[in-house]
Amino acid sequence: AQKVTQAQTEISVVEKEDVTLDCVYETRDTTYYLFWYKQPPSGELVFLIRRNSFDEQNEISGRYSWNFQKSTSSFNFTITASQVVDSAVYFCALSDLGAGSYQLTFGKGTKLSVIP
Amino acid sequence: NAGVTQTPKFQVLKTGQSMTLQCAQDMNHNSMYWYRQDPGMGLRLIYYSASEGTTDKGEVPNGYNVSRLNKREFSLRLESAAPSQTSVYFCASSELPRHGLAADTQYFGPGTRLTVL
User: Fold this and answer.
1) What are the residues facing B42 on neighbouring strands?
2) CA quadruple B79, B77, B103, B36: dihedral positive or negative?
3) Which residues contact A7 (CB under 8 A, 6 or more apart)?
4) Fewest C-beta atoms under 10 Å: which of A14, B27, B37, B107?
5) Would the CB atoms of A102 and B33 count as touching at under 8 Å?
């Protein structure tokens, strides 16, 4: 069965520090998608990125970057020069055919607090 | 373009009462989903509708029913609410998954915070 592990429950950093959020996944499928979502204190879920299993190229979007490594089944998320507005719970999620093509399996989330 | 909308935003029920959570999307998506979020648990799928006219159980369907009213709307019903159903409920939608590929990106509504006393 598919599984997503976010071992870091809570992280606190001082503003302008870099921070990496870890995500490790398990799946038997060769075709799957990985996602990151952000849930700010207001409660909504904001889509950040989607990566398919055939594309291991790292991605950078402004201060955000993602490192996908199939060899270690990891999809880590780095925020560079963190800001207070980055304070949120971040969820990693997996979608694969083994789940019936329609189910996102979420990790339990990492709560990031950026201290001014 | 409102995306995914949910009503109500907050609700308090007594044990045994029933209610329906409403969800609508204006992105012309074929698939819709209901999740619940509990502290420290991430999100868990309750039911989903891959396309209009179909519904299927997710990971935690017990105590819930759903109706895919049309392409835009997908409702979640609690027939006899229990304290264990106190949670935040999220609706989501996505394009129809293409054959042989995992599901497309899901976009979420703002959530409904439900308390059952």
Assistant:
1) none
2) negative
3) A22, A24
4) A14
5) yes
What residues in A contact B59, CB-CB < 8 Å? 103
CB-CB contact of A91 with A105 (8 Å): no
Are A21 and A11 in contact by the 8 Å Cβ rule? The answer is: yes
User: What is the DSSP secondary structure assignment for residue B100, as one 8-state letter?
Assistant: T
Q: Is A56 in contact with A67 (CB distance < 8 Å)? A: no
Residue identified by tokens 């609508």 is: B24
Q: What would the pLDDT profile of A84-107 be if each residue is shown by its tens digit?
A: 999 999 999 998 765 555 678 999
- Please tell me the number of Cα atoms within 13 Å of A47 on its side-chain side: 17
Q: Which of A94, A101, A111 to mutate to test the interface with B (most CBs of B within 10 A)?
A: A101
Calculate mean pLDDT across residues B77-102.
85
- The sign of the dihedral angle between the CA atoms of B68, B102, A97, A46 is negative
Query: Of how many residues is chain A composed?
Result: 116
